[in-house]
Structure formats: structure tokens, C-alpha cells
Amino acid sequence: MLPSTFKDYYQILGIEPGAHPTEVKKAWRALVRKWHPDVSGSEQINAKIFQDIQEAYETLIDPLKKEKYLQQRWLQQVTQTKPIPAPTNSNELLHAIIKVEQLVYKTDSYRLDTDFIEQYILFLLTPSSIELVNELEDPVVSKEITKLTLRCCIKLPAKSRIAVLNALSGLKQPDSKKLIAVYKKENILRGTLERYKTAIILLIVALLCWLISSLA
Fold this sequence. Notes:
Blueprint: H1 9-13, H2 21-35, H3 43-60, H4 63-81, H5 90-106, H6 114-124, H7 127-136, H8 139-153, H9 158-168, H10 174-195, H11 197-215
Helix pairs in contact: 2-3, 5-6, 5-8, 6-9, 8-9, 8-10
């Protein structure tokens, strides 16, 4: 989830978004010399600013941390810094879900910020947005929204899937209900496997060890 006070690391370092790592390092070095706690002045203020500078540098210089941060920054811009109204019709909602699905599948699974994805989907699938789709009574749009959202769910952990499914379940079109029902049925097996994944792996390892010792 996003922190209540989001820090713009680019602004902290005084650089443009997308700045090259060499620019990040150059800006960081200049600010460290200026705001190091040992510099004369208010040590308490300097220490706080210095901490933010270090945090910004360590995030933007690390590819994994930077990718996760950029996802969070984008959501911050969409929902707060540059507020957008909730979808006013089902087509706007569909286009927004398409963008989320594209983000999910162009990002490496190990780098995907699942909290971010869950929060943004729930931001879109409000009761009022769901009602817009129901009022339209267009099975094609409703089905497409459902299908794309469920595709996103595949890459989310169990807790996030449940939250998204609860929001999505407000759709009333038969095709959407059918897709959700099938997904929930499949999800029961997946959830069971996730819950006992460690035990299953240990059992497999034990069986392999026993087989190797038997053949030795």
C-alpha cells in the first residue's frame, strides 16, 4: 500500500524523472555535501533531510527498488497528485482495466508490486463503477472487464485476489457471473496448493532423497 505521505524522490534530489543513474549520483553527492548532519546548522533538520536524500538515492540507483517505486509514483500521480474522476461510463472503466492488465503482463512477476495492483484495481472497481456497467446491460463490455480483471488476479497473492473478486462480484451479467464462478472454483485448488506449498516441496524432497538412497 502507498504510505500516507508519499515522497517524490526525483524532487528530493532535484532531478527530472527518468534521469540517468550518473545524474542521480551527481545530484546525490552534491546534496550529501550540503546536508550532511555534521554540517553546521540545525542538526535535527539536516539529519531528516539527509535521511530522505539517502533513501531517494538508494531507491533510484537500484533497478528493482526503482521499478517498484515508479509503479507507486504513477499511482500517486493518478489518484492524488493529478486526481482523475471515477469512470463516468463503462467504456472508461474498460480502458482503465486494459491499462492495468498491460502493466501486469509487461512487468516481471518477481518485480511486480502486487499491493499496487490490488489498490489500483479496487480504486477502479468501486460500487458506482460496477453499477455503471450493470446499468449499461452490455454483456460484451461486462465480460471483457471481468476477463481482464481475472487475468490480473492470476498474478496476485490470495488475499489480494479475494479483495478484487469481492469487488468484481457485483457485476450482474450472466457471462461475468459464469467467469467469476469458474475462477473461484479453480482458485480453491490454487489456494490449497499455495497454503501447503512448503509441505509439498518438503515431501517431494524427502521422496527424492529416499529414492536416491534406495538406488545407491
